[in-house]
């Protein structure tokens, strides 16, 4: 009376297909996408503003797409760097999806863009499951958030190709235990690079830009264990 | 809550499959959800109820099967349950896991279509049966 059929289809197949199209399109015109994930307030925008400014100084054509539920505040901050910037308002959605990124590139992103930084919605849960056509996925954690953040949000940290610790100028005040943090990252994402950064004292200046430029070469990017899923 | 997007994706995919097969209804959808997929089954079930309203999927039962996370060490050929939070370093030698064998699934495993016969039966017997 009922017919069973095995669909075996990935629920996220639609997003993955859109991400693949976006990646192919952008890569073929020389644009590399960098997806930035972190919790709210970890310093994505401040780091990005610094790195975009550095990109400008070094003559690297970089742009930023920044997503929030409300306000254009981040776009205004990032635009101070001189780079092309666009704000995405997600209308309450907690993460970006590949087709949202694709939709927002029209009539805005200069053809010559080499690096497109996508500042995801501040959230370590939902954005982790969505490929945005990026060639480099970066997760940020500030020193005030606790060393166990990688264990609490294993998917976000487990799928990152680079981990940046921000606000390290406050590490002592926050009693940040760098060794413990690194061990927790290693548990969920063995071999991923962890770098320290502070926009306030200049530590790690250019780190995001350098790694993003390295990713444009294609073969220097870390592949997380979680992304090496078996058949 | 990204479970709403996932629920919509499930409904979209099953609706498309129903259309291509000429199915008139769906009795159940079984999903494989990996331990590391970052999906809350209860939230997904809640969203599914909302997402399927007014579609051919309306009334279908959503069955979620949790797939445990396991990893394999290349040198030791050892396979272990990674747990949550996952331990992706080999318990034997401490090396990084070579691969995650399971745990990130997010798949529609099976759909049971409700055929015309099923629809007739439901009319005669409006109480939903477990079968």
Automatic annotation (TrEMBL), chain A:
GO molecular function: GTP binding; GTPase activity; nickel cation binding; zinc ion binding
Signal peptide residues on this chain, from the entry's feature table: none
Keyword check for DNA repair: no
One annotated GO biological process: protein maturation
Hydrolase is among the record's keywords: yes
Pfam families in UniProt: cobW
UniProt KW keywords: GTP-binding, Hydrolase, Metal-binding, Nickel, Nucleotide-binding, Zinc
Domain CobW/HypB/UreG nucleotide-binding: 33-195
PANTHER family named in the record: HYDROGENASE MATURATION FACTOR HYPB, HYDROGENASE PROTEIN ASSEMBLY PROTEIN, NICKEL CHAPERONE
Similarity remark: Belongs to the SIMIBI class G3E GTPase family. HypB/HupM subfamily.
Protein name: Ni/Fe hydrogenase formation protein
Native source species: Streptomyces vietnamensis
TrEMBL record, chain B:
InterPro entries: HypA/HybF
This protein's record includes keyword Zinc: yes
Residues involved in Ni(2+) binding: 2
Binding site for Zn(2+): 73, 76, 90, 93
Family annotation (Pfam families): HypA
Signal peptide: none
GO biological-process terms attached to the record: protein maturation
Function statement: Involved in the maturation of [NiFe] hydrogenases. Required for nickel insertion into the metal center of the hydrogenase.
UniProt record similarity statement: Belongs to the HypA/HybF family.
Protein name: Hydrogenase maturation factor HypA
Taxonomic lineage: Bacteria, Bacillati, Actinomycetota, Actinomycetes, Kitasatosporales
């Amino acid at each position: 009376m009922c017919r069973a059929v095995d669909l075996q289809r990935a629920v996220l197949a639609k997003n993955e297909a859109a991400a693949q199209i976006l990646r192919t399109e952008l890569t073929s015109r020389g644009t590399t996408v960098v997806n930035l994930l972190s919790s709210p307030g970890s310093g994505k925008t401040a780091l990005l503003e610094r790195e975009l400014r550095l990109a400008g100084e070094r003559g690297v054509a970089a742009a930023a797409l920044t997503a929030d539920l409300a306000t254009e505040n981040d776009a205004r901050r990032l635009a101070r760097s001189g780079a092309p910037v666009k704000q995405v308002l997600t209308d309450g959605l907690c993460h970006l999806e590949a087709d949202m990124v694709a939709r927002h590139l029209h009539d805005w992103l200069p053809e010559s863009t080499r690096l497109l930084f996508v500042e995801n919605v501040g959230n370590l849960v939902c954005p982790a499951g969505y490929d945005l056509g990026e060639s480099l996925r970066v997760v940020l954690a500030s020193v005030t958030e606790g060393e166990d953040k990688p264990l609490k949000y294993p998917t976000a940290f487990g799928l990152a190709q680079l981990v940046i610790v921000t606000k390290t100028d406050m590490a002592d005040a926050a009693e940040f235990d760098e060794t413990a943090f690194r061990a927790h990252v290693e548990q969920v994402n063995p071999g991923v690079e962890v770098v320290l950064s502070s926009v306030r004292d200049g530590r790690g200046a250019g780190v995001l830009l350098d790694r993003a430029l390295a990713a444009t070469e294609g073969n220097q990017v870390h592949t997380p264990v979680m992304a090496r899923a078996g058949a | 809550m990204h479970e709403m997007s996932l629920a919509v994706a499930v409904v979209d995919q099953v609706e498309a499959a129903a259309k291509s097969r000429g199915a008139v209804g769906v009795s159940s959808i079984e999903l494989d959800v990996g331990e590391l997929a970052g999906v809350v089954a209860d939230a997904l079930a809640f969203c599914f109820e909302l997402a399927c309203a007014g579609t051919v999927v309306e009334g279908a039962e959503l069955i979620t099967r949790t797939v445990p996370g396991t990893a394999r060490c290349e040198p030791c050929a050892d396979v272990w349950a990674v747990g949550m939070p996952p331990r992706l370093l080999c318990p034997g030698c401490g090396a990084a896991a070579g691969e995650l064998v399971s745990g990130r699934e997010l798949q529609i495993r099976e759909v049971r279509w409700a055929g015309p016969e099923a629809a007739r039966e439901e009319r005669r017997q409006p109480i939903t049966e477990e079968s």
